[in-house]
Design brief:
Distance between the termini of chain B: 83 Å
Largest interface: A-B, 21 and 16 residues
Order of helices and strands of chain B: HHHH
Largest sheet of chain A: 7 strands, mixed
Number of domains of chain B: 2
Number of helices of chain A: 10
Organism (chain B): Candidatus Gottesmanbacteria bacterium RIFCSPHIGHO2_01_FULL_40_15
Oligomer: heterodimer
Distance between the termini of chain A: 39 Å
CATH architecture of chain A: Alpha-Beta Complex
CATH topology of chain A: Spore Coat Polysaccharide Biosynthesis Protein SpsA, Chain A
Strand order of the largest sheet of chain A: 3-2-1-4-6-5-7
Number of domains of chain A: 1
Shape of chain A: globular
Radius of gyration of chain A: 16 Å
Number of strands of chain B: 0
Organism (chain A): Candidatus Gottesmanbacteria bacterium RIFCSPHIGHO2_01_FULL_40_15
Largest sheet of chain B: none
Radius of gyration of chain B: 24 Å
CATH superfamily of chain A: Spore Coat Polysaccharide Biosynthesis Protein SpsA, Chain A
Strand content of chain B: under 5%
Helix content of chain B: over 70%
Number of helices of chain B: 4
Pfam families (chain B): DUF2304
Keywords (chain B): Membrane, Transmembrane, Transmembrane helix
Strand content of chain A: 15-25%
Number of strands of chain A: 7
Protein name (chain B): DUF2304 domain-containing protein
Chain lengths: ~230, ~120
């Protein structure tokens, strides 16, 4: 089985090297692991650092947003027919050892999409506003697509080869996280989630989705429904 | 019934708008549905400009007090609809740009690999 680990990155020269170094080199049951960084039009040395760290790098000549970068990762994974795909954030907020954890349900239990959920009780208290907005997004996702999730906005996901082929993303921005659920619903993909460790640093908090962006994400998601 | 200068000026302007719609349709830029929509909008506007009394009749029919109110309600609804269409159009363009950028990123990779192997 071939696995692609896809990392969307925008101006991440500080962290991308560390993230790439920390990724597992071998996983039981996986024959080959490729790491792809999609540099989404960064103005810093993200692409160069990623390349020096041994990753495959695809560059967007202009910034298209998280959805655009994920679209390129899916296009690459589909084109080269990977059996498995994992997407992970470039800001170091995910624990690389959890990659095995989110892959297991796909490999062992035939799940198509598995999302790593981040909200432990201690974190809920610490980042109460962020948690509440996330809950609102989860509820919104449930209303739109009827899928219950503990963390619709998590960027830590694993996909089966079937899911890679079926999922077609159209959002450019942060609303892509909810769009995955539309695709799960639309194609009848088998969904699961597993709790993962969250490494919340000042850096990753600054890089993550801005709370002020939430209304815009909801609005755009809603308008998409009316198309 | 003699028409005022404003009525004649507005009607001529609307006729000009209709001529643009017809040209766009002939050039194949505007689909049949779009052509019919704009023709109906501008045609209706000309009728209202030339016979403003009609708005009162229409207002009574749809249960709105004054003819002027009817015109405002219809105009606001139309503007909202057009803004929505414009938004969708922009979204489609954004989406197309992303498609191109994705395609270019993959093509560049292919070309670099080809150079390495040649």
């Amino acid at each position: 089985m071939d696995l692609l680990i896809g990392i969307p990155a925008f101006n991440e020269e500080t962290m991308i090297g560390k993230v790439l170094k920390s990724l597992p080199k071998r996983i039981p049951g996986i024959d080959r692991i490729d790491i792809l960084v999609v540099d989404d039009g960064s103005s810093d040395r993200t692409a160069a650092v990623a390349k020096n760290s041994g990753a495959l790098v695809l560059r967007h000549i202009i910034n298209r947003g998280l959805g655009g970068a994920l679209k390129t990762i899916f296009a690459y994974a589909g084109k080269y027919r990977y059996d498995l795909l994992v997407t992970i954030d470039a800001d170091g907020q995910h624990h690389p050892a959890d990659i095995v954890k989110i892959l297991r349900p796909v490999i062992d239990n035939g799940k198509d999409v598995v999302i790593g959920t981040r909200w432990k009780n201690s974190l809920k208290k610490k980042f109460i506003l962020r948690y509440l907005i996330n809950q609102l997004a989860n509820f919104y996702t449930f209303l739109l697509y009827g899928i219950e999730t503990g963390d619709s906005q998590s960027g830590f996901r694993s996909f089966s080869g079937k899911a890679v082929k079926k999922i077609n993303l159209s959002s450019d921005g942060m609303e892509v996280s909810s769009e995955f659920f539309r695709e799960i619903y639309r194609h009848g993909l088998i969904y699961d989630e597993v709790p993962v460790k969250l490494i919340y640093t000042d850096y990753s908090q600054g890089k993550g989705q801005r709370l002020s962006n939430a209304p815009n994400v909801f609005f755009r998601q809603f308008l998409r429904l009316l198309r | 019934m003699p028409f005022t200068f404003t009525q004649i000026f507005l009607s001529l302007f609307l006729l000009f708008a209709i001529s643009r719609v017809v040209i766009r349709f002939r050039e194949g830029i505007l689909p049949l549905l779009g052509f019919a929509f704009w023709l109906a909008v501008f045609g209706f506007a000309i009728v209202i400009v030339l016979f403003p009394g009609l708005t009162s009749v229409l207002a009574t029919v749809v249960g709105i007090g004054r003819g002027a109110d009817f015109v405002i309600y219809v105009s606001v609804s139309l503007i909202f609809f057009l803004i929505f269409r414009l938004y969708i159009y922009l979204e489609d363009i954004r989406h197309d740009i992303t498609e191109i950028i994705t395609h270019l990123a993959l093509e560049n990779k292919k070309r670099k690999n080809a150079r390495k192997t040649s």
